Hints:
The protein is of the alpha/beta class. The protein contains 6 helices and 12 strands.
Amino acid sequence: MTKRVLILAADGFEQSELMDPKAALEAAGFETVVASSNAGEIKGWKDKNWGESVPVDALIADMNASDFDALLLPGGQMNPDILRMDEAAVDLVEDFNDAGKPIAAICHGPWMLVEADVVEGRTVTAWPSVRTDLTNAGANVVDQEVAIDGNLITSRMPADIPAFSKALIDALA
């Protein structure tokens, strides 16, 4: 059976942080499902402007962690800020964590880990402006390409995407 990865995203996701790991996962033989709070399409953010749109495969409210093998949380400033206000999205992060399933969050994506209260005592990394929030939530914050602590896989920025994608693929293998 093909392993499935749920991608939570909203308008303003960092385009490369959703599209590049999604492509890497699919090339490795995994199924990806993009879920958002609203149906239709969500618009990416690229180079300080709106980027490409991505079709929404499912609504977050209809998703269950038990139907997936891992969770991907792309960054972009707007994307996780919108998602952390969606109770169903936060609950999903908690459910994936409670199940010990891999959760991969990059750049501003770890804001969702803070909102779900799953970083206390964990070693993580993120975009520099998110690190204070992680520290205040009790995380041990490091500045490195990828930080892996149990089921949490975190990275800092788009330049880390190859290592980030590889870490998630390895966790699923």
